[in-house]
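Anyone up for a design puzzle?
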C-alpha cells in the first residue's frame, strides 16, 4: 500500500490509550493496549503452524481494517465494547467527512455564484 498514514485521533477510550490513523487509500489503523492477559496459542493445519505469543494486559497492540466495518469487528475482537468500537469509528468518519463536507459547501457556493452571474 503506497501513500501515507494520517493521525486523526489520540485519546482514551474505555480506559485504554487509542491512536487512530487513516491511510490515504482508506484503511484504518489503531494503536492501543491489550484489555487483558492473552495466554497465547498454537494453531496447526496441514499447511502451516501459527504461534501467537503470550501478551500481558497493557501491552501495545495494533488493530487494523481495510473498511470501517472491518475495523469495527477487529476492535470488538480486541475486547472493546460495541459502543467503544462505534465511538472510535465515529472519530474516523468525522475526520474523513470534514474535508468532503467542506468540498460540498464550496461546490454549492460556486454553483450559486455562477447562477447569480447569469442573471
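Challenge accepted. My sequence:
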Amino acid at each position: 500500500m503506497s501513500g501515507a498514514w494520517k493521525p486523526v485521533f489520540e485519546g482514551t477510550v474505555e480506559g485504554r490509550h487509542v491512536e487512530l490513523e487513516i491511510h490515504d487509500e482508506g484503511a484504518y489503523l489503531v494503536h492501543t493496549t491489550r484489555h487483558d492477559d492473552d495466554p497465547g496459542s498454537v494453531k496447526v493445519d496441514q499447511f502451516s503452524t501459527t504461534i501467537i505469543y503470550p501478551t500481558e494486559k497493557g501491552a501495545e497492540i495494533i488493530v487494523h481494517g481495510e473498511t470501517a466495518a472491518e475495523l469495527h469487528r477487529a476492535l470488538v475482537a480486541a475486547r472493546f465494547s460495541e459502543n467503544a468500537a462505534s465511538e472510535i469509528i465515529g472519530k474516523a468518519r468525522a475526520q474523513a467527512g470534514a474535508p468532503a463536507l467542506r468540498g460540498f459547501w464550496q461546490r454549492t457556493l460556486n454553483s450559486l455564484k455562477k447562477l447569480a452571474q447569469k442573471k
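A detail worth pointing out: The longest strand covers residues 5-13.
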